[in-house]
Amino acid sequence: MKNILILIVCLFSIQISRAQDPAFTVEVSGKGKPVILIPGYSCSGEVWKETVNHLKDRFECHVITIAGYAGVPAVDAPILEKVKQELINYVQTKNLVRPVLIGHSLGAFMSLWASSEAPALFGKVICVDGLPFVSALSDPKANADSLKKSPMYDTAMVVKNFQRLPDSGYVEMMTKAMLMQVRDTSRARQIATWQFNSNRRTLALSIIEMATTDLRPAIASIRQPVLVLGSIYQTKENSYKLLHEQYQNVPDKTIVVADSKHFIMYDEPVWFYSQIDSFLK
Fold it and tell me: Are 257 and 231 in contact (CB under 8 A)?
């Protein structure tokens, strides 16, 4: 009987421990009004290093790295939903007064999700080449519910495909792929390395979760100003068209397109800082 009680206590402790696993890590620096910076898919919070250096004399920067990315311990699914809820909890626990949200790519998606659920809690939002429903980019008629049932997003299959990718040559292969998203080869290699150091299951589950979550109806509840910084999708005109379609439900928005690939803060830093400085005045 004593052994059974010990086993129950141990199991209960494990469950508590798992429940408390953080959905992200945070590094804080600078002083002033709080800003939360969220990196994109597979990236470390280090992606914001230069941006933090630009902001830290005027803003207190809270830089996130999502669990399972870039060497941070993974958490169980639903990963992004946990990140969203923990963002809200973090702001409440730390008593941050309407922090600005700056998110790149998946980080922009997370910024929209958190601010649409708790609009009174957050300040201005800056979305750096991110969308409320990425699947509509390739298929304007895409439906989140039907996508969840699609064989393309079969969880077991997608996870298995990611786990089968060989470690040998991974960084080199991804560096070449990342050059479609950033101009500089050293930046591409750094992004590829972050992805290599990410949990493969997390990579699979988080991309499925984002692809099958449509925030377009929810963003109508965002009351704070939103700045959308887009990159070139084929042409600048096409970029404006796509972004206006995706963000049409946001009441107060400004959309600007950079002459840049996906990592705007790397490709066009001077332009990028000018845009965010003007918006945050």
Answer: yes
